[in-house]
Design goal:
Layout: H1 33-41, E1 46-52, E2 57-60, E3 65-67, H2 72-81, H3 93-104, H4 108-129, E4 145-147, H5 148-156, H6 158-161, H7 164-175, E5 194-202, E6 209-218, E7 221-230, H8 235-249
Antiparallel strand pairs: 1-2, 1-7, 3-4, 5-6, 6-7
C-alpha cells in the first residue's frame, strides 16, 4: 500500500476514504416529534412538518397543502436538469445564469424563465417520480400545492433525482443559499451536519407563508426535514417558528456526527480500522 503523502482525515476511525456507501439513517436516533408539536401548538398561525430517514418518516399534519412560494424552485431546477436535451451535456453559461440566482438568491425572474422551459407536465412527472401524493403544479409556479411529507420525501433523495452529470452542480446551489436567506432550519443544523435546502415565503394568496425543506448529510447518513408555516403575524415570526420546530425535531442528531478530524503524521501509514 502506498503511504500517504499528506495529512489524512480520520472520521469514526476510518483512515482512508472509503468507496461510496449506501445512504443510511442515523443510528439510534429519531426526531423529537412531541416537543416539536408542543412548540408549534404555542405559536400563532398554521404549522406542519415532516422528517424522513432512509428507513421511516414522521410528521405532524404533514399532508396539509400550502401554496409553495419559492420552495418549488428546487423542483424546477431538478426538472430542468432532467430534460432529455440537458441531462447529458454540459450546462451553458446562460443556463447557469438562470439556475444559480433562482436557487441561491431565490430570483423570481430566473424562476419564470426556467418554469417556461420546464412546463407543468415535466413538473408533474417529477412529482410522480419522487413519490409525491399531494403535489399540484400551477401555471404561476409560486401557486403550486405542496405538502411537508412530499417535500421531505423529495429532498431525502434530491441528489439522486438529478442526472449524474449535473449532480454536483445542483447540490452546490442548494448548499450555497445566500446568507440573508439562511434562517429557520438553517439556524438549527446540528454540529457535524451539512445542509442543502430551499425556502419559500410571501403573503397574499400565499397566506404569509414561510416554508423550508432541507437535506442534512453527515457522511453517508442523511435526514430530510420540511417545516411549513402559514398565516404568520410577520415574516420574522414565521422564521422563528420554523427554527423552533426544527431545533426540537433535530435534537440529539449531533451525537451521530462522525467525529473530529485527526492528524496522521507522514510516513506512519494508515491507522488500523477502529472496532
Amino acid at each position: 500500500m502506498r503511504r500517504p503523502a499528506a495529512i489524512a482525515l480520520l472520521c469514526l476511525g476510518l483512515a482512508a476514504p472509503a468507496p461510496a456507501a449506501a445512504a443510511a439513517p442515523p443510528p439510534g436516533w429519531h426526531p423529537d416529534v412531541g416537543a416539536a408539536r408542543a412548540w408549534a401548538a404555542q405559536r400563532a398561525g398554521d404549522v406542519s412538518f415532516a422528517v424522513r430517514t432512509e428507513r421511516r418518516g414522521w410528521s405532524s399534519r404533514g399532508a396539509t397543502t400550502y401554496r409553495s412560494a419559492s420552495v418549488v424552485k428546487a423542483m424546477l431546477m431538478v426538472a430542468y436538469l432532467r430534460r432529455p436535451d440537458v441531462r447529458r451535456r454540459p450546462l451553458r453559461a446562460e443556463e447557469r445564469a438562470l439556475l444559480a440566482p433562482m436557487i441561491r438568491f431565490s430570483d423570481n425572474g430566473a424562476a419564470d424563465a426556467i418554469s417556461a422551459r420546464v412546463g407543468m407536465a415535466r413538473l408533474s412527472a417529477l412529482g410522480r417520480r419522487a413519490g409525491m401524493r399531494h403535489f399540484g403544479p400551477y401555471p404561476v409556479w409560486g401557486g403550486s400545492a405542496i405538502a411537508a411529507v412530499d417535500q421531505a420525501r423529495f429532498f431525502l433523495r434530491i441528489d439522486r433525482l438529478v442526472p449524474r452529470r449535473h449532480r454536483r452542480y445542483a447540490m452546490a446551489q442548494l448548499r450555497g443559499i445566500t446568507a440573508g436567506q439562511r434562517w429557520g432550519i438553517a439556524r438549527a443544523v446540528p454540529r457535524g451536519w451539512r445542509i442543502a435546502f430551499k425556502g419559500g415565503w410571501g403573503r397574499g394568496v400565499t397566506r404569509e407563508v414561510n416554508h423550508q425543506v432541507a437535506l442534512l448529510t453527515n457522511g453517508r447518513l442523511r435526514v430530510s426535514i420540511a417545516v411549513f408555516t402559514a398565516d404568520n403575524p410577520s415574516h420574522g415570526y414565521g422564521t422563528a417558528t420554523q427554527q423552533g420546530v426544527a431545533a426540537r425535531l433535530l435534537r440529539g442528531l449531533e451525537r451521530t456526527a462522525k467525529g473530529k478530524l485527526v492528524r496522521v503524521r507522514r510516513g506512519l501509514g494508515w491507522p488500523r480500522r477502529a472496532r
